[in-house]
Design brief:
The protein is α+β, with helices and mostly antiparallel strands. The chain folds into three domains: 108 residues, no CATH class; 123 residues, Ribonuclease H-like superfamily/Ribonuclease H (Nucleotidyltransferase, domain 5, 2-Layer Sandwich); 70 residues, no CATH class. The protein is 34% helix and 17% strand. The protein contains 13 helices and eleven strands. The strands form two sheets. Strands 1, 2, 3, 4, 5 and 6 form a six-stranded mixed β-sheet that branches. Strands 7-8-9-10-11 form a five-stranded antiparallel β-sheet, with no helix packed on it.
């Protein structure tokens, strides 16, 4: 006999959320790694000692983790999902009747005290400390790399300067007043009004605003020991690498003997920095002299030390034209008319109006 669905309400229910969250659920596997007791002392400093009790910060941090883990970017939707999803309620320790914080309360804490206190980084470090305690972080071999993430920003949007941009420009101006080592940074040519810390990047195709997440990974079990977010600029990868290595040494006494990375990290100063710290770099040396994209490189030109000039494959002389004293670079090139009528120009240069140049760095 065919059954029929009835909507009669029972007066009492025997229901436990614990029984309805599978043992292999991702949130169960993450929950046992979290230790908020170590954070409560630091969180207490962010709250007033008087007044009514606040929403438990652990609840909001657990909600944030759900948003990051399941790609819920909207705070309003995150509040709704935690209210409806049994597994989310279990993870947030709300039970069936626990009240989910209002979206405005959640947003103010997320962009206010949590951002100022760097709480999420401390929570991440607590998880790393547990991994070290379990012995799954070797500490002898590490790898460094970065991933580009497209920012939620429109390059063509041209509105009035918004508050995030004004704050960013103010911080940029204040940083110029502080003496820093290394080359000075130029102000960015393009600034996103939605995400001012994103950089206009050509790494993955057409120019678009992007950020980059940089990782320091212990290679024994693939444990991420440290992470640093930067604008998607090639120069920031090495800055982030140094910051992660210094921080992981201070926080976790993580001192790898060997570090592997791709060619973008293979600059002379960074390799020297690693060797000074007694870290063996497994990094290809970055040599832009041979990045010719299929064109003739410097080895195809004959150098005359007496005349201090080069001769190209067609027999045209390329005399010394320019010297950069700061970079100690000498530039040699023929005239525009000579290169313009050369039969092998396409194999030598892509420049439509400029002659082919040969640059030599003096030792």
């Amino acid at each position: 006999m065919m059954g029929r669905l009835e909507t009669q309400e029972n007066l009492f229910y025997r229901f436990r959320i614990e029984d309805h969250v599978p043992q292999e659920h991702l949130l169960r596997r993450i929950d046992w790694l979290l230790d908020f007791d170590a954070l409560r002392a630091e969180l207490a400093a962010l709250y007033s000692h008087t007044g009514r009790p606040s929403v438990d910060p652990e609840l909001m941090l657990r909600m944030l983790l759900i948003g990051y883990l399941y790609g819920i970017r909207s705070e309003r939707r995150l509040v709704e999902e935690v209210h409806l999803n049994l597994a989310y309620r279990w993870f947030c320790k709300l039970g069936l009747e626990g009240r989910v914080p209002d979206r405005s309360t959640f947003s103010k804490n997320r962009h206010g005290r949590f951002a100022d206190g760097d709480v999420l980084r401390r929570l991440f470090e607590c998880v790393v400390e547990k991994c070290i305690g379990f012995g799954i972080v070797g500490g002898t071999d590490a790898a460094i790399d970065g991933s580009t993430i497209q920012a939620d920003a429109n390059r063509d949007r041209k509105d009035q300067v918004q508050r995030p941009v004004a704050d960013y420009l103010q911080n940029l101006a204040e940083s110029d007043d502080v003496t820093q080592s290394g080359p000075k940074k130029k102000p960015p040519k393009y600034i996103s009004e939605t995400d001012p810390e994103a950089a206009l990047s050509l790494k993955d195709g057409p120019g678009r605003f992007s950020n980059e997440t940089n990782y320091l990974v212990d290679t024994d079990h693939g444990i991420i020991v440290d992470v640093e977010a930067t604008p998607a600029r090639l120069s920031q990868e090495i800055v982030a690498a140094k910051a992660m290595l210094n921080r992981s040494q201070t926080r976790h006494d993580f001192r790898p003997d060997r570090v592997a990375a791709d060619g973008s990290y293979g600059t002379g100063p960074f390799l020297a920095w690693l060797l000074k710290r007694e870290v063996t770099p497994h990094v290809p040396v970055l040599d832009r002299q041979h990045q010719t994209k299929g064109k003739y490189d410097l080895s195809h030109f004959q150098y005359d030390p007496e005349r201090d000039s080069y001769t190209c494959l067609e027999g045209h002389e390329m005399p010394l034209r320019r010297i950069k004293k700061n970079d100690r670079i000498k530039s040699y090139f023929a005239g525009k008319d000579t290169c313009g009528t050369c039969p092998i120009k396409k194999a030598c240069t892509d420049a439509p109006s400029r002659p082919r140049s040969a640059r030599h760095r003096r030792l």
